[in-house]
UniProtKB/TrEMBL annotation:
GO terms for biological process: lipid catabolic process. It comes from the Eukaryota. One of its GO terms (molecular function) is hydrolase activity, acting on ester bonds. This is GDSL esterase/lipase At5g03610-like. Keywords: Hydrolase, Lipid degradation, Lipid metabolism, Signal. PANTHER family: OS04G0650200 PROTEIN, OSJNBB0059K02.9 PROTEIN. InterPro entries: GDSL (IPR001087), SGNH_hydro_sf (IPR036514), SGNH_plant_lipase-like (IPR035669).
Length: 366
């Protein structure tokens, strides 16, 4: 299969797995403190999160997303809680690193005590992007609008912002929307222009968050899309990643590094911009599990998702419309898997990714 077709297919998988409109669900929101590996920094620090399903901890609608449907949340907190995983996601681990509770999802800000907002707000919505994607959910610009409105309402002070950190995890769904809209008609010919447009707007948004008063900002690079299980299952039976797809990820990350460096050079305030290298963190986590897999019967194949549909027409969380019977299977050791579903890491996967980027996080707390 030619490269452009593979890219389009992969990004389509990325989109349909994160798109809130392809699932339905129930349950309630949870916030928590991770008990292990905390870095007890200044407890006045606040975390503001802007992103998609890799960072969402409960904003996506209960009746419009698989993150509120069993078996999501099976590892933590034991039932669906709005996270696209069996347990904790990237936001939770970064909050733990800061020594604070995971920030309250924006959607739940009015239903919790004001004291619960002391750790910040999570504005991330699954399926969203830097630009508008093919779903009706707040994109990055709108998420920042929400943030600005809360500042105008004096929910957070200038002092609060001086000690705050922003986490930005977006862009994959922008590529998915682009390829779907073009109908896979030679999508590769202007991929460079599309990438530049996405990254340019991403950096504009980073600057806006900085101008609103957040001085420390961490932005994620794109993961190796060629290693997503939805791709590896078709082309290599979960054995190897697609190099052509990974090269598309590397190109995005290269442009991102260039543009962030340019931003650093023109920023007059004392600010810190850190790129969190999810690309190499994913590869490292996958490689480590591959190395140990041969010596253990409990480790899952890192390229194979723990939760899968019983056939191609079903996905993780699918149920029979008439009987309600589960149309998915869950691996025997969810806590030893790398990926939970076709796109999203498991809690174990995110823990491994977090361990790989932890050194970069230190730059945000200096």
């Amino acid at each position: 299969m030619e490269q452009t077709t593979i890219v389009a297919f992969c990004l389509f998988l990325f989109y349909i797995t994160t798109c809130p409109q392809v699932h339905s669900a129930i349950s309630s929101d949870h916030r928590h403190r991770l008990g292990q590996g905390q870095h007890h920094h200044d407890r006045s620090v606040k975390l503001f999160v802007f992103g998609d399903s890799y960072a969402d901890t409960g904003n996506s609608g209960k009746f419009a997303t698989g993150s509120w449907k069993a078996p999501y949340g099976i590892t933590f907190p034991g039932k669906p809680a709005g996270r696209f995983s069996d347990g904790r996601v990237l936001t939770d681990y970064i909050a733990s690193f800061l020594g604070i509770r995971s920030p309250v999802p924006y959607k739940w800000r009015k239903s919790v005590k004001k004291s619960k907002l002391v750790n910040g707000i999570n504005f991330a919505y699954g399926g969203t992007g830097v630009f508008q994607t093919l779903i009706s959910a707040p994109n990055m610009t709108t998420q920042i609008d929400f943030f600005q409105q809360l500042l105008e309402e004096k929910l957070y002070t200038k002092s609060d912002l001086d000690s705050s950190i922003a986490l930005i995890s977006l862009a994959g769904n922008d590529y998915a929307a682009y390829f779907l809209k073009t109908g896979n008609q030679s999508p590769g010919k202007d991929l460079a222009a599309v990438t530049t447009s996405i990254v340019n707007q991403l950096v504009v948004n980073i600057k806006r968050i900085n101008d609103l008063g957040v001085r420390k900002i961490g932005v994620t690079a794109i993961e190796p899309m060629g290693c997503l299980p939805g791709v590896t299952s078709i082309f290599t039976s979960y054995q190897n990643c697609s190099e052509s797809l990974n090269s598309a990820s590397r190109f995005h990350n290269q442009i991102l590094h260039q543009k962030v460096e340019e931003l650093k050079n023109v920023t007059t305030t004392k600010s810190t911009f850190v790129i969190l290298d999810l690309y190499n963190a994913f590869l490292s986590a996958i490689q480590q599990q591959k190395l140990h897999q041969g010596n253990s019967t409990t480790l899952e194949n890192p390229l194979k998702p723990c939760c899968v549909g019983v056939s191609s027409e079903y996905s993780c969380g699918s149920v029979d419309e008439r009987s309600g019977a589960a149309k998915y299977t869950v691996c025997s050791n969810p806590e030893r898997s790398m990926f939970w579903d076709k796109v999203h890491p498991s809690q174990n996967g995110w823990r491994a990714v977090y361990s790989a980027i932890k050194s970069s996080l230190h730059q945000l707390v200096i």
